[in-house]
Amino acid sequence: MASLTTMEKLILFHKLERDLFHRLVHDLAQDPVPMLWVIAFWLWLESDGHHDFIRRVSALPGPVVLRFVDEAIACLRCLARQGHGHAAGTGTGDGRERCLPCTNALLTKRIDDVGYFEGHREVFDGVTYQYRSVCLAVCDVSSNSTCVPTSGVLAAPPMVGSPVLTAPTVASFPLNPMASPWIPLQSPPPDDYRSLFITFSRGYPINREDIMDFFDSVYGPCVETVMIEKVAPGQLPVYGRMVLRSAAMIPVVLNGRQTAKFLIKGRHLWARIYVPSSRLSYA
């Protein structure tokens, strides 16, 4: 049996990245060139100590993956401005994108602001290395659709959707309505491992439909079901349980913190990791 070539070994080793690239381009309708750089950026994050970042992103629903893409491109735009001044609020997205809530949820050490990457030559060199040595080699994209950046290209203001090199504009990240839902091959873990414990202000409960609509609109179709406290007639519930479709969504919803607070139709909801208890009763 013939031994594998170096290239074949490289492709096998990076099968996860190759599959994610295919999903981004073919299932989620993204431009291939920016996605090469997005994968390169995530590979750099892993090389910097944030292990399993790509595997955890890959397990998420499509709309949530696209939020990670938005944040990666915001970081790449800053990297592209090597040696140039930064105008606040220019080309780095809204406040939510600047704070990298999704990305930070999977990092071992938080990044306070996307501006951290501006002029960061060491990061730029690391991402470029991953792009040239891994992404161009293992990702299935035609050779005429990619180009290796030069200092002249990097010095120019980045185009929307292509932060480091000149490429077709990607002004938004639409989910392909014709694509089949992507479902991980492994069976989902039990409900207890995919749940958040939610509480309301006393006297101001929120119904399950409003809770599901809110989180699905913010994070994509991530909620499987919501259970509200079972109470006696005339009483109002003060807690509930929200079961997510994927356990990987828990740090995303909590934004990397132990608890998170949300405002839903003028009423407050607090969420934290669910700990099973026989004392809790749900309707």
Task: Please render the helix and strand layout as text.
Layout: H1 6-13, H2 15-27, H3 32-47, H4 53-58, H5 62-80, H6 95-98, H7 101-105, H8 121-138, H9 151-155, E1 195-200, H10 208-219, E2 223-228, E3 239-244, H11 249-253, E4 259-264, E5 267-273
Entry summary:
It comes from Miscanthus lutarioriparius. The protein is α+β, with helices and mostly antiparallel strands and 283 residues long.
Question: What key attributes describe this structure?
Answer:
Alpha-Beta Plaits, alpha+beta, 2 domains, 283 residues, 11 helices, single chain
Describe this structure in words.
This protein is of the alpha+beta class and 283 residues long. It has two domains: 150 residues, no CATH class; 83 residues, RRM (RNA recognition motif) domain (Alpha-Beta Plaits), CATH 3.30.70. Helix content is 39%, strand content 11%. It has eleven helices and five strands, in the order αααααααααβαββαββ. The chain has a five-stranded antiparallel sheet with strand order 2-3-1-5-4. A hairpin with a 2-residue loop joins strand 4 and strand 5. It is elongated, with a radius of gyration of 21 Å. The chain starts with 5 loop residues before the first helix and ends in a 10-residue tail after the last strand. The relative contact order is 0.14. About 20% of the residues have low confidence. This is RRM domain-containing protein. It comes from Miscanthus lutarioriparius.
How many strand elements?
A: 5
Structural class: alpha+beta
Task: Give me the Rg, rounded.
Answer: 21 Å
Task: Quickly count the helices.
Answer: 11
Head-to-tail CA distance between termini:
61 Å
Q: How do the SSEs run, as a string of H and E?
A: HHHHHHHHHEHEEHEE
Helical proportion, percent range: 25-40%
Give the count of structural domains.
2
**Order of strands across the main sheet:** 2-3-1-5-4
The chain-level mean pLDDT equals 78
Q: What's the shape?
A: elongated
Poorly predicted tracts of residues: 83-96, 143-185
Protein name: RRM domain-containing protein
